[in-house]
## 1
Amino acid sequence: MEIFIVDSSHTSSNSFEEKRVTSLIPQSFLSGRIINDKDSEFYPNRGDEKIMRSETIAALILVNQLIQKYKSKLSLDETGLFVASGVFIENLEKHLGHIVKFINTIKESSNEKEKYRKIYFASPPLLALQTLTNSTMSFIAQYSGIKGNNATYGNTSLSGFHAIEEACDEAYYNNREALACASNCAGEYSFLVHSPFFNSSKNWKESAAAGALLLSSKIIFDSKYKITALKYSTNNDYLNSNHIERNWKKLLPDLNADALIFSGAFTEEINLNDLLYCKKLNPNSISIFDTLGNMGPANLFASINKGIELLKSGLKKIDIVDSDVFGRESLIRIETI
Amino acid sequence: MQKKVYIIEHDLISPIAIGRENIVDGIKLNKSADSQIKRLDVSGLPFRKGAEIKEDLSKYYTEETDELKALFTLDRKLELLATTWGKSKNRLGSILNKCEPERTGVILGIGAEAIPLTYFEQELTQFIDKKLNAISELITALNSKSGALNTVSNPYDIYTLYLAEKFNARAFQKSILTACVSSTQAIAQAYDSILRGKADVIIAGGTDSIINLIALISFGKLGVIPETGTNNLCRPFDTNRFGTIAGEAAGFVIMASQDFVNKHNLKPLASIIGYGNTLDGYKITAPDQNATAMSKAILDAIKQSKISANDYDYFYAHGTGTRQNDSVELKAIQTALGNHANAIPISSTKDRHGHAIAAAGIQELCILLELMKNDLIPGNLNLQNSIEPDMNLPKENFSQKINYALTSNFAFGGINTVLAVKNEQ
């Protein structure tokens, strides 16, 4: 299967800060967030903005910018949209703070009925929408007009691979253009979810991001790059062994790529180990971790963007690998046409 | 000629039936699970009822590890999934023996996370007293003692990992998070994956529960759960409908390629013969009143099935009982089926088992398989005054062979997924 990359776009965090979310973990972590351009012509209206996370807005803007370029050649009613999302809580205390506040306010009260009545009436009316798992996909559809086959996958980094794979399949088997997209929230809650899976959270780094790929099986879009391999692995032993070992070598079609871009680490230590592993497979191994940290489902999209830069500079074939928090790995090979 | 994608097994844990063998009796007896919620204190909420599985499920997962059992008490979705597995595993042994791990995949629709804060009220108040970020402290404290999985706040993939381990499914493990169509899309994608040769066997389904404080508040605030009063029954397609019933369920179907079924001489229950899956692209808070994408999803399913619309003899509707959904859904059916829309029996069963959100699709497909087996069409239990009197919205159950059925689910955010199903029994 060969699928043409019509275009690719990625929004990275543009503001990084050291955060410490709990007294129980001594060290802070580095967290990146996206500050969106409110002057963008695709910035959502105020009513929608209230229930959107920053990375959802970023995804919305970049997809609309992509679609704008190709609108005349796309049938949006039939264009596929496959999205991968990371965690769905951008600000934990803000999201659930009302419940804590009221538990505290009436902690002396033995009247459960009154307690829950107060919690109910203190809860924001749009609580469900703020953490809706398909909000990135639905808002993209609402603002872009894409109405085709679709799904939202979540929420480890492997879901980014599934979104790209399904978009490729839509292009290949159904002969329709398809958009793969990822949005990663990152932040405090992501740290709380993911850090217990590792022995140490020292030098932890993650960031919010959004990425999109417009894919087609046709060459009518003057594409210059193509996806030539998609592979992944599973890890059925995780629940028993809690053991992760890099095994990217097994996924590589060969060792002939001009560069290997890898992701999956949340800490500098793991990233360094990954680099040592990858250097044995390809001396030109590159990590996006150093600049952006882990971006969850958006990892692969950022790496593909980086890979396209390398292809533009004259390289011919790039392998892109990722591993999720459960040790499930994926590979995407991109090449010049 | 396109090969078939069969359903060879299924099971369901639902408020109206623990296990597939109890589904039809529940329907025939017009059993409704709509009753006072017992699992948590809802006395202060404006509504007290839900479709809750009240049976103690722990007897179905006695063989699980203590670590997992502890997780089940805090994660209802995982408990429901483990129950579905525990209930059916002995029966599935003969099929499991035939599956090659590398050719077997899992795709599940998963509902939104609900941190069980009220379990930890005391701990939360202690953190608040120390002027700490209470929720962050609580999550960290609970997870610091965890094993392979967190005690609370796990990635959504743990459900697929769990079932993949049970089925030794190594081809893929995908989690779909598209609210009320999650498990319907899981089945649609399993269909595609088998046709595309990516697997011989796929376990497709889902798990969800909105019988928890956060979800009840969230859905209550959206106005989709009727407040306690005299007229608060879930009444799909009724002029006096005020909302749905909060529900919970888990289930799966085992889908297999035609070659696998032939090779092992299996008797299929049904086949998936097509699907439609569209986006409204309209507004996140409401379905498109013109029902354009919804009707296209129905038409796409029919077109892919290569069966004439007139040959479909049952439309198993999403029918939530909410003001927003039901009238638009009937409009979509009218647009897609034309004259046949007034002839085909249309019913929803959410008035019996509630809305299981991400597990709605699998719950209803499992029920449909049993309806097909028993030549039974369920009536709309609480329907009194139909919003479309010319359409065939039966109030009573009746006996009729179902050869071909359409089953629909529509999600918040404007996602429309419809499956075309052929009875193979």
Note: The mean pLDDT of chain B is 95.
## 2
Amino acid sequence: MAQLLAVSCAVGVSVAYIHRSLWSNADALLQSRMVKLLALVGEDDDNPRKLEFDADQANVPTGDLFYVEDDQGHGVAGSSAWLGPILDHLRTSGETWTWKRDGRAFRAASMWNAAILDQEDNRIPQLHATLFYAMPVDGTETQIERASRVAVLAGLLSVLFSALLTWWAVGRGMQPLTDFARYADQIEVDGAEFNGPGDVGGNTELVPLARALAALEDRVRQAFQRERRFLSDAAHELKTAVAIEKSTLQLLEQERPSKDAYRRGISQAIEDTNRIERLVHDMLLLSSLEHSRQETPATSSLVRVGDSLVSAIEQLAPIAQIRSVSCVFDDNCNARIRGSESDLTLLWTNLLENAVRHSEPGTEVQIELEDMESVCRVRIIDKGSGISCVDLPHVFERFYRSDASRSRSTGGFGLGLSIAKAIVENLDGTIHLSSVPGAGTTVEVTLPSLVIATQKSQASPQT
Amino acid sequence: MHILVIEDEDRLARNLATAIMRNAGFAVDIALNGEDGLYLATSNTFDCIVLDLMLPGRSGRDVLRSLRAGGYKTPVLILTAQDEKTSIVDLLEQGADDYLAKPFDLGELLARIKVLIRRSSGHASAQLVVADLMLDTNNRTVFRAGRRVELTPMEYRTLEYLMTHHGTVVSKEKLLEHLYDYNWEKFSNVIEVYISALRRKIDGSSSARLIHTLRGHGYVIRNEETP
């Protein structure tokens, strides 16, 4: 765009210059012809104070028109016919103008009150004449036209050339980006490592881009791998659960069982189906929890932690009763967090269930809630069988079951703690497990709590 | 035949054992983890081992490797919930003889076990034939000279084992190992009872005697008249 403007200006200026210089050339020629003509106007030998024109010596170029008159207005040479009506006007000043006659262009000038030098006794000139001269300027016009055309053509060519040059140069400059884009296009999420297109063409501006893209690809690949691992773990569990049910039913099919055997078999199959149902539910829950990490929580509200703990304890009451395990919780803290109430209750239920199931009958599970300025801490302490140090680093892994517990028969899939961890992380908290095999396990959860006005300052002073 | 099922899913293991016992008439023992499984496999004789891959403690792969490293040639059928072809190929190279992906058809499992046993004892067909005695392992039927012979499950089991290894002398101890699972008291007398019952039912009305006793060594089934 800028180039086009520049070139147009250049061409314009050139053309204007051509115009001016050629016209001034023409004018100079005109002037010289006028002077030449004027030189032939002299004092009349016979009649002093009268002007005469030496027509013999005149060598007026063909086509030129002229008219000379003395200061009285009498014609001395040439004819005034060509001047026409503008003669009066021109008598008072000297001008140069262009006009057309019969399709031909003329350039004319007038020399007003020119001094006549050719006088008898070379005294100070006293006689004056006015000279009008017209010269055909077709040639000049043609010249101007031609020259202008050349200038415009040159201008166009230069624009074209510079455009091509720019296009090529930009293309070259864009090459690294194009290569980059092509490379990025080829990224398969589960494919080879992305290493950027090696050198970014020495273009330092592209280095942060390359880095950012590599980091992005890495993140995407990791997320994809996580998904894949989850799916393969889940597939295994599901296949096993389905295999069990299938074998139960096929066994029934093979022989002709008694009515009792049928009934037993069917209730077994229903148990197996329930198991699959729970597994699918837990898996989907875990998956949605892990996905909601990226999204803003929609069901977030102000939750009183103590209330959610009480709710969880109530939910586990039947199981606790069957196992003769008691849950002890002193709800004396008003800590509040921002989060989903249902998620929070689920978190406690999972942890408490683990504690209750692992506890010996007759023992108790202690639940502690502490408010520590910007965080609140919940501790769930059981005196159960504990977790071996071999298993401890893996407890939060999906589908991980320590061999000792063999909790499959009790309905566990190894997802409880994974779900708990996902919930805690969604709430921007931390979860930590410590255990002494044979003595018990302590689960510690810290969650960022909201600083609220304490009871003391809420009470208004009595006046 | 004596089968070992190594599978940590209690319900599944029991279902498999029941199916094998009912359908094939084999004796079945169960191990719920790799360690127990390996112990049983190496301290008893089995005709086929059904091995689940995902086991707590010692993995299925580990059990297989130890078994083969210890020189045990028992045919092994792997049960796996994994999809990956690479691991299956790897297992077959490690010494597994066959595999089935979960969930599987019980019927298919039984058929494959029978094939493995048949192959490992050198038979090409599901029918065992000695002279005019024919035992069909698929239907569990026995024919002598074209006439159907009715046998009790244990009699059938004994005959099947002898015919599978026909021409080979089978000791009483071996018979005990292959005919009984862990839970049964192993009285060596009981073998004699079966053998005599078989003799009565199979050799009784026929001209040619097929079941022979070699004192101090064991029993063998063969056609003495063929040169």
Note: The first strand of chain A starts at residue 41 and ends at 43.
